[in-house]
Automatic annotation (TrEMBL):
Substrates-to-products reaction catalysed: [[Fe-S] cluster scaffold protein carrying a second [4Fe-4S](2+) cluster] + N(6)-octanoyl-L-lysyl-[protein] + 2 oxidized [2Fe-2S]-[ferredoxin] + 2 S-adenosyl-L-methionine + 4 H(+) = [[Fe-S] cluster scaffold protein] + N(6)-[(R)-dihydrolipoyl]-L-lysyl-[protein] + 4 Fe(3+) + 2 hydrogen sulfide + 2 5'-deoxyadenosine + 2 L-methionine + 2 reduced [2Fe-2S]-[ferredoxin]
Pathway annotation from the record: Protein modification; protein lipoylation via endogenous pathway; protein N(6)-(lipoyl)lysine from octanoyl-[acyl-carrier-protein]: step 2/2
Keyword set includes RNA-binding: no
Protein name, as recorded: Lipoyl synthase
Similarity remark: Belongs to the radical SAM superfamily. Lipoyl synthase family.
A Pfam family that the UniProt record links to this protein: Radical_SAM
Keyword flag Transport: no
Organism: Candidatus Jidaibacter acanthamoebae
Length: 302
């Protein structure tokens, strides 16, 4: 990939460019989110797919405040002293989901190392409120790693989300540089423990590429995730949020993403989403339907 002569950064290719959001549907979703005082990872993490997703009424809600206790080098979410928990957040979230008439919702959060259970109880309350207010909505959660928070994952598994997502983010050799507060094998164990506690819950994990990893390292992460019985892998292009964040090493080509998708399917994942603009919750509702169908087909073939 050619570099920009003035900054020595990789030049953004056409396949990574997106249009600015302007549609009426986008503005309606924005208004509902503001009305219910919800945070979204779409905004906080500057997701490139916000226009497409909000136009369809899809948003990934971020609970437990908007300030994170970690300082991952890839993430655009603010780091510092975290917000006080909003006791009304689960109810407001359930009301918003009911009004949006969502078939599928994705709930994520900042890391809350300051809380005894890392915020697991708050996740559970949100799941319970949504089930009471919008019983037909399927629920996908994208959680932190709950490092040194014994019993946190068990609490959430008991609440039976339809999909439990936790992102591995990058390859092990880059953890100290990119994700210094986390531990690669802890994240793998978290995902595996979900399956061991309740094999009916779909598990999902995501990986960024373009940070300096090798193809062989990506394939090894796939093997590790399959050993942890993960059902669904997402692979997307890392985009540097600001000059202060981890440097972008290169733009991965669409052909390479197609290669990763073929290999991941061969390795046994029920679902694979691999493209430059893929993010953890991109097309999550449609993908959940496909994921459920893939499991049903697998069971028929056994």
């Amino acid at each position: 990939m050619l570099a920009n002569r003035t900054t020595n950064k990789p030049t953004k290719p056409d396949w990574i460019r997106v249009k600015a959001p302007t549609s009426k549907e986008f503005l309606n979703t924005h208004e509902l989110i503001r009305k219910h005082k919800l945070n979204t990872v779409c905004e906080e993490a500057a997701c490139p797919n916000i226009g497409e997703c909000w136009q369809k009424g899809h948003a990934t809600v971020m609970i437990l405040g908007s300030v994170c206790t970690r300082a991952c080098r890839f993430c655009n979410i603010a780091t510092g002293i975290p917000d006080k928990l909003d006791p009304h957040e689960p109810e407001n979230l359930a009301n918003a989901i009911s009004q949006l008439n969502l078939a599928h919702v994705v709930i994520t959060s900042v890391d809350r190392d300051d809380l005894d259970d890392g915020g697991a109880s708050h996740f559970v309350e949100c799941i319970d409120k949504i089930r009471a207010k919008a019983p037909s909505t399927t629920i996908e959660i994208l959680t932190p790693d709950f490092l040194r928070k014994d019993g946190a994952v068990e609490k959430i598994v008991k609440a039976r989300p339809d999909v439990y997502n936790h992102n591995i983010e990058t390859v092990p050799s880059l953890y100290q540089k990119i994700r210094p507060g986390a531990r690669y094998f802890h994240s793998l164990n978290l995902l595996h423990s979900v399956k061991k506690l309740n094999p009916h819950i779909f598990t999902k994990s995501g990986l960024m590429v373009g940070l300096g990893e090798t193809k062989q390292e990506v394939l090894q992460v796939m093997d590790d995730l399959r050993a942890a019985e993960v059902d669904f892998i997402t692979i997307g292009q890392y985009l540097q949020p600001t000059p202060a964040h981890a440097a972008l090493e290169r733009f991965v080509t669409p052909e390479e993403f197609e290669y990763y998708e073929r290999i991941a399917k061969f390795k046994g994942f029920l679902m694979v989403s691999a493209s430059p603009l893929t993010r953890s919750s991109y097309h999550a509702g449609d993908d959940f339907i496909k994921l459920r169908s893939a499991r049903e087909q697998l069971l028929k073939n056994e």
